[in-house]
Specification:
TIM Barrel, eight-stranded parallel beta sheet, 11 helices, 13% strand, globular
Length: 261
């Protein structure tokens, strides 16, 4: 992207790519190349990681998949095949084949999760180490996909797991909320669980954490708690620019926080 207009109007500072803070992780379920090209033309500057979610990489034509990966990487964006897909491979005892294929396809990032597959945490840590040893940038995810299982995880346990995964080599640890933002720090309606969210923010190094927050109210809450450089994930492609407007106070939800303080 070129120079931005209205340069005389100041905005809160934002890190430049490659970013360590203020990361935006986008969830791509099935974008075709025309949609990818449009997304990069309008919002490429603001995307740091793209997750090809739900194991959809297994369903695409290989040539199309490689083309998408190349396009994202050419714009300084890490590309990840998603954690549940790796869990499927682990359930079949094919994690080595998964890593080798991901490398051959051009993926430079992998997510290690145990949201569904009942792996021991030590096994998860070993997968993180394995992926790092192969040169992948690794994100790992704390939380379960099923509400009853996720609610059994105590706040202290979430913090402990995140710290161990960072020590094992994860670049960032993702706090699970699912694509709808109705799990983990959020209730079934998507409202913030203030006590749990506050505990995690207080006890985690938030610059090392990506908070899944697909909904505007969740994004605004986290930005007002953590500032414009909050790391946010599960962002829909159409919401990248709207999220950036929240990050810099160009929207009513965060206007006062940034411009009337």
């Amino acid at each position: 992207m070129g120079a931005k207009p209205f340069g005389h109007i100041s905005l809160p500072p934002r890190s430049e790519k490659p970013r360590e803070n203020g990361v935006t992780m986008v969830l791509d379920h099935c974008l075709g190349m025309h949609a990818v090209e449009d997304l990069l033309a309008t919002a490429g500057d603001y995307i740091d990681v793209v997750k090809l979610g739900w194991g959809t990489s297994r369903l695409f034509d290989e040539g199309l998949l490689k083309e998408k990966i190349r396009a994202y990487k050419a714009n300084g964006i890490k590309v990840c095949p998603g954690g549940t897909f790796l869990e499927v491979a682990c359930a079949q005892g094919k994690q080595d084949e998964f890593f080798n294929c991901a490398k051959a396809l051009g993926f430079d990032c992998v997510e290690v999760s145990n949201g569904v597959h009942p792996m021991h945490h030590d096994e998860k840590l070993e997968l993180i180490r394995k992926a790092c040893s192969m040169g992948f940038c690794v994100t790992s995810e704390v939380g379960k996909k099923l509400r009853k299982e996720d609610e059994r995880i105590a706040p202290e346990e979430r913090v402990s797991m995140a710290e161990k995964e960072l020590a094992a080599g994860s670049w960032k640890v993702i706090i699970e909320a699912r694509a709808g933002g109705t799990l983990g720090m959020f209730d079934f309606k998507g409202n913030v669980k203030e006590e749990l969210a506050g505990y995690l923010i207080k006890n985690l190094e938030t610059d090392k954490i990506i908070f899944e927050a697909p909904n505007k109210s969740q994004q605004a809450w986290l930005i007002k708690r953590l500032g414009s450089e909050a790391n946010l994930g599960n962002i829909k492609p159409d919401d990248v620019i709207p999220l950036e407007t929240l990050r810099v106070g160009l929207r009513g939800d965060t206007f006062a926080f940034f411009h009337l303080g």
